[in-house]
Structure to design on (439 residues):
């Protein structure tokens, strides 16, 4: 081991190593808290000064984590949020948690990762560990980041250290959190992998070291592709079974009684969140470099991206059956978040449904207790506010479209007062009436 690796190992083991988290969003903020709870001094870097202001005031902007989630950070002298990326040389370990979206043509957009890497390279010093957590295609860490970091003359594995450890966050999940979800770690070299593994073991209950950064990168893609393909399968089943007059939700309940060989996935109005709609296309793009097709991934993408159209068609048909046209129809969309009981609207199909309904001439509003107003998103800026719902208000709408099945909604009340309910989530199961339509 080099002097730099020996020194960093000692700092990690005595918890004096300063951990820098770059990107204080859905991945970075819980990670910062985990390392803080493990006893490390933590710096949080973000381009948004508002986030830093809220953290210093002890206010949490990720509501699904709870109001008091960041109080321990605000009250501590071991945590400091900053927008000053000129201070990236201060932490001993830098964990990159920035977005990896898709471009207009479904090509990977690594601009956030590469811009962050360039910023790190400006202050890179011996003894620093750099770990990428953002989902990406295999060889990003070694092939894209490493040359930038080594351009200044320092050498990976001797002077500084690089690893990949994919985030596995699932906002709103109650059964696991950042500390309890097993963590994969793959180094550019053995020393880098060992140092990163040792660091994460202080904050995460179970850390699994893998052979290389490429294995960890590919494993993350496989996890999300697995979900995307199976969601596409059950979405396709929903379309077919609905046409056959069979309740897909009953079919899933029946199938999941098998104790092996089946895992339940559930249909919806489309894919949402930062992972499932985006990550599979990182491998599709990479596969083209070596001239190979990715038929399963591309087919799953086609099925899942077609679901909003299917929901619109079902809504138009349901209104027609009541003697109403979609044009000028008053439509209430329930749920803006992409999944139940969170405030996360990233890639939410609800937003696409609102835009498509409006384009057809409908008068569209939404309700979401977790999202009081629509934020500016990557592709959308609706500039809308959540409306109140009550038995009286529900009666005013020609159609109530359930896009997200939040637990707070009173589905008995919705069934009793709505003129028409189009249910994309199986939320109205058990409710009776010709005015309830599955989509």
């Amino acid at each position: 081991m080099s002097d730099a690796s020996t020194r960093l190992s000692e700092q990690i083991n005595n918890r004096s190593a300063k951990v820098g988290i770059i990107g204080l969003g859905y991945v970075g903020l819980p990670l910062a808290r985990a390392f803080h709870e493990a006893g490390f001094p933590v710096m949080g870097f973000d381009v948004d000064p508002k986030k830093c202001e809220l953290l210093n005031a002890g206010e949490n902007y990720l509501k699904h984590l709870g109001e008091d989630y960041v109080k321990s950070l605000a009250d501590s002298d071991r945590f400091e949020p900053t927008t000053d990326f000129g201070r990236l040389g201060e932490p001993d370990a830098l964990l990159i948690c920035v977005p990896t979206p898709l471009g207009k043509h479904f090509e990977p957009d690594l601009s956030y990762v590469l811009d962050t890497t360039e910023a790190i390279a400006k202050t890179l010093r011996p003894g620093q560990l750099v770990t990428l957590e953002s989902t990406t295609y295999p060889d990003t860490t070694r092939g894209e980041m490493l040359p930038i970091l080594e351009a200044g003359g320092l050498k990976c594995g001797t002077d500084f250290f690089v690893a990949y450890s994919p985030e596995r966050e699932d906002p709103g999940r109650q059964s696991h959190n950042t500390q309890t979800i097993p963590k994969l770690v793959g180094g550019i070299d053995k020393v880098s992998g060992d140092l990163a593994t040792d660091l994460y073991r202080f904050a995460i209950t179970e850390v699994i070291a893998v052979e290389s950064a490429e294995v960890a990168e590919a494993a993350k893609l496989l996890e999300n592709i697995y979900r995307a393909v199976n969601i596409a399968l059950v979405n396709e089943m929903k379309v077919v079974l609905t046409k056959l007059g069979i309740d897909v939700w009953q079919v899933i309940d029946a199938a999941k009684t098998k104790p092996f060989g089946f895992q339940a996935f559930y249909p919806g109005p489309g894919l949402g969140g930062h992972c499932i709609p985006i990550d599979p296309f990182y491998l599709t793009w990479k596969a083209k470099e070596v001239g190979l097709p990715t038929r399963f991934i591309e087919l799953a993408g086609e099925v899942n991206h077609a679901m909003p159209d299917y929901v619109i068609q079902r809504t138009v048909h349901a209104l027609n059956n009541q003697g109403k046209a979609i044009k000028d129809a008053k439509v209430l969309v329930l749920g803006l978040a992409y999944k139940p009981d969170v405030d996360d609207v990233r890639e939410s199909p609800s937003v696409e449904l609102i835009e498509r309904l409006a384009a057809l001439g409908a008068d569209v509003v939404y309700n979401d207790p977790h999202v009081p107003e629509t934020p500016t998103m990557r592709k959308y800026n609706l500039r809308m506010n959540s409306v109140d719902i009550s038995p009286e208000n529900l009666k005013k709408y020609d159609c109530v479209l359930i896009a997200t099945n939040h637990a707070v909604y009173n589905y008995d009340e919705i069934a009793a007062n709505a003129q028409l309910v189009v249910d994309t989530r199986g939320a109205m199961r058990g409710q009776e009436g010709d005015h309830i339509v599955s989509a």
